[in-house]
Amino acid sequence: MTEQVNEDIGDLFADIPRAKTDNAAANVLLAPFSGPYDGAPQFDDAELSGLKPAMKAAMERNLAEVDAITDNPEPPTFANTIVALEKTGEALGRVYSYWGIWSSNMSTPEFRDIQEEMAPKLSEFFSKINQNEKLFARVKAVYEGEEMERLSPEQQRLVWLVYDGFASNGATLKGEAKERYAAINKRLAELHTKFANNVLHDEESYAVYFDEDEAGGLPSDFLAAAKDAAERMEGEGDYAVTNTRSSMDPFLTFADDRDLRRQVWEMYYSRGDHGGEYDNNALIAEILQLRDERVKLLGYDNYASWRLQNRMAKTPENALALMEAVWPAAVARVHEEVAEMQEIVDAEGGDFKIQPWDYRYYMEKVRKAKYDLDSDEVKQYLQLGKLREAMFMVAGELFNFKFTPIEDGVVPVWHEDVHVWEVTDRTSGKHIGLWYLDPFARPGKRSGAWASGFRSHDTLDGVEKTVLATNNSNFVEAAPGEPVLISWDDAETYFHEFGHALHYLSSNVDYPTLNSGVRDYTEFQSQLLERWLSTDRVIDNYLVHHETGEPMPEELVNKIKAAATFKQGFDTTEYLASALVDMRYHTVDPAGIDPDKFERETLAELGMPDELPMRHRSTQFGHIFSGEGYSAGYYGYMWADVLTADAAEAFAEAPGGFYDKELAKKLVDKLFAPRNAIDPAEAYRKFRGRDAKIDALMRDRGFPVPGGGDGESTIE
Known about the structure:
Number of helices: 28
CATH architecture of the domain at 11-199: Orthogonal Bundle
Strand content: 5-15%
Mean pLDDT: 93
CATH topology of the domain at 11-199: Neurolysin, domain 3
Largest sheet: 5 strands, mixed
CATH class of the domain at 11-199: Mainly Alpha
Radius of gyration: 25 Å
Low-confidence stretches: 1-22
Strand order of the largest sheet: 3-4-5-7-6
């Protein structure tokens, strides 16, 4: 099924009766996208009251489309089964565009009630399709038939992906096992939704307030935003630290008040772990038990084995081998970092050992002492608007894209903060798509940063569909008239998410399913784009002081580059801890599991340093418990980072460096444009001429290279 818009789903479905509704609000959500630029979601006319009837009507339509395929008396072929299936679900995809915005960008208690009601109904709907025996029989017939050999490689991969999607999701089950599989999916949908809403509840319900005399060390731009937050939230204090990473992280980095740092740290890392109605521990236990039961119905030893079979890692053992190869070096670096911090504490007369709420604060002191590098000084050159211009420049040089702002009101948006750009080919002027940017934190918006889309590229009906891509962040909005200044880490994240958008926009696949991603590969493209932030062309032209307009001084640039591997102990260890706990959760017998105890015991077994937490504690680990996108797959960021480090070395060695035209074209043609039309390992070999080498990752992070760097260690 596709989530892309197509106004004419083809002659095959011309006589299918359409579900009717008298609800005008629902009709807006169901209707083909309209307006200029090949149409876009009509967010200005969308009403939450129409969501349920629209979703129900779209599901009915989708089931009717599937019935038309299964009732076809002709023998199964690629055209009348696989392509026909690709054409289904477009109305549902349109509704999902609005659902996704209400879920992630504009959530309200009213939407969450609808979400909790509809999530199990959606699960039942997908089970009806995934377990449709007549449909799977037709798909299997194409997969195993003689026609398969005559298809193009892209078409063969499509058939395999469709077949595998059914086979891996219960299509082969019979009788009670089939019924139980569907029931588990329905219950998991409820649990995933409840988990996410519990985290959002805690993010909206807690804040730490402080007064002027407690504001020592905090930058003026942070205080201005914290003052606005306090006024908006009407709490007791001059300033407020909200319960989001974008507020927590700078506070823990700069705030002198140690007790306040502890309060903020405990608030943030306790999300979903307060006991009572919004506690996630029991939900985690049930999720793990149901996932384990479900995959055993399919004959797998554990959930991770099922999840990784079609990813680059292939097996949990391969994923663990990579993580465990890096873990000792990361932990060793943490001990070095802590020792450096403790020296400063002792020199200042502090009578305490470094605690998790001290790490960022004293690492900033180490940064200043070791590299004479002040993060707040760096921020003065990192303006959100100028960074966006830098990303557009990079996209132009590598992808030949041009971004042109669209006047407000021409394309509907879901919030006044959102702006839209048209993306065209710089040479031909061809329209590629639209790019939406929603940059700021606000109540009802989930934390973090992410990319998504409302329409992906395909040529299913002989017409090339254009792309609707979005980037979403949670930067703290500056006081009126002031620029938004962000940290270097946040600037890297900004580039990272833009990389996902470029992946969408560069697609040249013919079939919607081929826009899907292989999780431990799709992060590679976005992680690679981070590397252009530190290129000279970006630094020299876009990292300018927000007051003077002067470029970043060469001395400061050199300090940043000298500190490139700074804090890698913290960054790598907090990430790996979450990835390893995720993999352990999904490879053990979860019967009777106590998530809090399991987390503590697993970290102790790993030798997790006491001075820092895992990046996402279990009760707030939405990547793996608010859905299944990253479950048993959080390791994928590191797998992708091996590819990233290796590819970055290719650019560093190219005649034109990171702007080498020949290598950039190869990057787009071999790695971005094909999406999932080719096996990721094969795609990477086409780009690099070989598999990626793990040694590149170790060099990139400043860790010792095992075996002295003979370069033989690769991932496939």
